[in-house]
Automatic annotation (TrEMBL):
It is an enzyme of class 3 (hydrolase). PANTHER family: HISTONE DEACETYLASE 11, HISTONE DEACETYLASE HDAC1-RELATED. Responsible for the deacetylation of lysine residues on the N-terminal part of the core histones (H2A, H2B, H3 and H4). Histone deacetylation gives a tag for epigenetic repression and plays an important role in transcriptional regulation, cell cycle progression and developmental events. Histone deacetylases act via the formation of large multiprotein complexes. Pfam families: Hist_deacetyl. Residues 7-19 have a biased composition (Low complexity). One of its GO terms (molecular function) is histone deacetylase activity, hydrolytic mechanism. It comes from the Eukaryota. GO terms for cellular component: histone deacetylase complex. Residues 20-29 have a biased composition (Acidic residues). Its EC number is 3.5.1.98. This is Histone deacetylase 11. Residues 64-349 form the Histone deacetylase domain. It comes from Anopheles melas.
Length: 361
C-alpha cells in the first residue's frame, strides 16, 4: 500500500581540476561563470547524451556492479532501432560548472572531492583511494559532471521545447544531497534541476518527483525537506540501502516494497499511488527517476520486476503526464545488470511506438 508521510519540517576551481595543465585551463574557463545555455529546438529529439558520460578508471569501475557504459549502450541501441538517425538529432550537454554546482552544493562538500578517499566512499570502490585525485577527477567525477549537466539540459528541453518530455541517458543521482554524496552519486542533479526549474521564470510552482529506483532517494529528500512546492512519490525496497529515516520525513507519498515484489503487485501500487499523487498535488512538472535496479536478478535492488514490467511502468508514467499536458524529464538512475541498457532502450522504443514521445517518428 502507499501512505502519506508529512514533513515536519569557500572553495576554488582546483576542487574540480583534472590534474593536467590542459585540463586545468579547460576547467578555469568553465568554472568562473555559468555555462552558456544551449539553445532548445522543437526540431531536435529531446534525448540528452554525449560519449563523455562513460566512466573509466583503469578498469576499477569493474569493481562496482554499476554499468559505467550504460548510457552509451542505450544510445547505440536507439540508433539501431532508428529512433536516432544522427548525433545531431539529440542534445549534447556541457559539463556543469563549479558556479552552477554551488547553487546547491556547499563549498566544503565540493572541496572534499579533491580527496580520493572521499570519492572512493561515494563511488563504493575502495581501491579508488589509492588513485591520484587527478585521475579520479578526469575519469569518474568529470563524466558525472557531464551527466549532471545533462539532467539540467533535459529538464530545460522538457520545459522549453513545447514537446513536453525529455530523457537524459544518465543522471538520477538521488543519494547525493547538498553536503553529502553516496551510493555512486557524487552530485545532486535532482536538487539542482528542481532549483533551476523553480527559478526559470516559467511558472513552475509544483514539481512532482516520481522516484521509481529500487532505493530510497534520500539525497534530494534531505535537500527539499521544507519545500512544499515539491511533492515526492518514492517507491522503494525498504529493506535495503539507505534506510534514511530522517530523509523519509520529506516523502509525501511513500510506497514501501518488500524484497522480491513482482510485476502484478508493483504495477498495481504504482498506478494507484501515482494517480492519487497527481490528482492531489496537480503538478506542472514531473521529474521521473526511472531506475532499472528493480529488475529481477539485480544484485542491489532485490526486487523481481520483469523487463515487460519496466516497459509497462515507463509507459504508465509517460501516459499519465502526456494526458494531462505535464512536462516530464526522465533520468536513468540505478540499474546494475548488464541487460539494463537493452531494457531501457526497448522501453523508449515502446514509448515511441505508443505515440508517447511527440514528434519522434
Amino acid at each position: 500500500m502507499c501512505f502519506r508521510l508529512n514533513s515536519t519540517a569557500s572553495t576554488d576551481q582546483s576542487s574540480m581540476s583534472s590534474g593536467t595543465d590542459e585540463d586545468d585551463k579547460e576547467d578555469e574557463a568553465a568554472g568562473g561563470k555559468l555555462t552558456a545555455e544551449l539553445p532548445i529546438s522543437r526540431d531536435r529529439i529531446p534525448i540528452v547524451y554525449r560519449p563523455e558520460y562513460g566512466v573509466r578508471f583503469l578498469g576499477l569501475q569493474k569493481l562496482h556492479p554499476f554499468d559505467a557504459a550504460k548510457g552509451g549502450n542505450i544510445y547505440r541501441l536507439l540508433k539501431t532501432n532508428g529512433l536516432i538517425q544522427t548525433d545531431g538529432d539529440v542534445y549534447a550537454p556541457n559539463e556543469i560548472t563549479l558556479e552552477e554546482l554551488l547553487a546547491v552544493h556547499t563549498p566544503r562538500y565540493i572541496d572534499s572531492l579533491k580527496w580520493s578517499l572521499n570519492v572512493a566512499k561515494i563511488a563504493e570502490i575502495p581501491p579508488l583511494l589509492f588513485v591520484p585525485n587527478c585521475f579520479v577527477q578526469r575519469s569518474y567525477l568529470r563524466p558525472m559532471r557531464y551527466q549532471t549537466g545533462g539532467s539540467l539540459l533535459a529538464a530545460r528541453a522538457a520545459l522549453e521545447s513545447g514537446l513536453g518530455w525529455a530523457i537524459n541517458l544518465g543522471g538520477g543521482f538521488h543519494h547525493c544531497s547538498a553536503d553529502r554524496g553516496g551510493g555512486f552519486c557524487p552530485y545532486a542533479d535532482i536538487t539542482l534541476a528542481v532549483k533551476m526549474l523553480q527559478s526559470s521564470g516559467r511558472g513552475i510552482e509544483r514539481i512532482l518527483i516520481v522516484d521509481l529506483d529500487a532505493h530510497q532517494g534520500n539525497g534530494y529528500e534531505r535537500d527539499l525537506m521544507e519545500d512544499r512546492r515539491v511533492f515526492i512519490l518514492d517507491m522503494y525496497n525498504y529493506r535495503i540501502y539507505p534506510r534514511d529515516q530522517h530523509a523519509k520525513l520529506a516523502i509525501r507519498r511513500a510506497v514501501e516494497l518488500k524484497p522480491h515484489t513482482d510485476d502484478e503487485e508493483y504495477l498495481r501500487k504504482l498506478k494507484h499511488c501515482l494517480s492519487q499523487s497527481i490528482a492531489e498535488f496537480e503538478p506542472n512538472f514531473i521529474i521521473y527517476n526511472a531506475g532499472t535496479d528493480i529488475l529481477k536478478g539485480d544484485p542491489l535492488g532485490l526486487l523481481d520486476i520483469t523487463p515487460e514490467g519496466v516497459v509497462e511502468r515507463d509507459e504508465f508514467v509517460f501516459r499519465s503526464a502526456l494526458e494531462r499536458s505535464i512536462p516530464l524529464v526522465m533520468l536513468l538512475s540505478g540499474g546494475y545488470l548488464r541487460s539494463s541498457a537493452r531494457v531501457i532502450a526497448n522501453s523508449i522504443v515502446n514509448l515511441r511506438d505508443k505515440a508517447l514521445l511527440p514528434t519522434v517518428q
